[in-house]
Design goal:
The chain is α+β, with helices and mostly antiparallel strands. 33% of the residues lie in helices and 9% in strands. The protein has one domain. The longest helix is centred in the middle third of the chain and has 17 residues. It starts with 7 loop residues before the first helix and ends in a 6-residue tail after the last helix.
Length: 263
């Protein structure tokens, strides 16, 4: 006999009907194996080995705003499957990704896939140019907004500072396809250092994080803000999708980023 589902509406009274209705079609072990199909052996979910990451199916009817009080499971976080397929997100998260999620106070699934692409492309560019990936500098270039009603958060380039093109003009078919990611016995710290579960931002809050100025930053971050402002003022917009696609091809990155960007 199947165990009845929790009363999600009672557990999450702040969640909108849209959020409670956002459930996953990945409901079986076969669905998880299908998700892995086409990846290189052990690098579907982890930078090192998939054994360090435990990915399980969702319960039918389990909404994206569920936390461990609704599931009675060990800690987990939801991730949309498109993040593994298209944006190449892998665990463990980088220090930059953990700090950014903490600064914005959102869970991984709460950030729109196009915005995750900005996050990943920015880190690739920084590594290529020898810059540190700085949350302060990133939030000088981007501001975070949500649409109200507790829904997804998007990052938008600040006017006059836009350096990255949008990953996909119309990002389709990502909702309704997410999985819970848990720690495995091999890496119990996998989910440390960032919010795991959907954060209630307030129903009427349509813009909760304006871009920051460089005034209170350290000297290095101030210099980097100046560098990127100069790039933006030259009308240089870097192709996000190409940068992610050619992450490991130095020659292609040189072409798409441009050696002229190096300070």
């Amino acid at each position: 006999m199947l165990k009845p589902l929790p009363d999600y509406k009672r557990l999450y009274p702040w969640a909108s009907a849209t959020l409670l209705g956002e459930t996953s079609s990945v409901n079986s072990d076969r669905d998880i194996l299908r998700l892995k199909k086409g990846y290189k052996d052990h690098l579907s979910f982890s930078k090192e080995h998939d054994d360090k990451v435990s990915v399980r199916p969702c319960l039918p009817g389990e909404p994206i705003c569920t936390d461990d009080q609704g599931s009675n499971d060990a800690p987990f976080c939801f991730v949309y499957t498109t993040m593994f397929k298209k944006v190449k997100l892998q665990f463990p998260f980088t220090r930059f990704e953990r700090e950014l999620l903490t600064e914005l106070d959102i869970a991984p699934a709460q950030l729109h896939p196009n915005s995750w692409a900005f996050v990943w492309a920015y880190q690739i560019i920084c590594a290529h140019l020898g810059h540190p990936a700085s949350v302060d500098v990133f939030l000088y270039l981007f501001e975070a907004k949500n649409s109200g009603d507790h829904l997804w958060v998007s990052l938008n380039g600040v006017a006059g500072r836009s350096i990255l093109s949008i990953f996909q003009q119309s990002y389709k078919d990502w909702k309704g396809k997410f999985v819970p990611v848990c720690c495995s016995d091999q890496d119990l710290s996998l989910l440390d250092g960032f919010p795991l579960y959907w954060v209630n931002k307030g129903k009427k809050e349509s813009s909760f994080r304006k871009a920051r100025g460089p005034d209170k930053m350290g000297e290095l971050d101030k210099d980097l803000c100046g560098f990127w402002k100069g790039v933006a003022s030259s009308n240089v917009v870097l192709p996000t999708s190409s940068i992610i696609a050619y992450e490991f091809l130095e020659g292609q990155l040189d072409f798409h980023i441009g050696l002229s960007l190096s300070p």
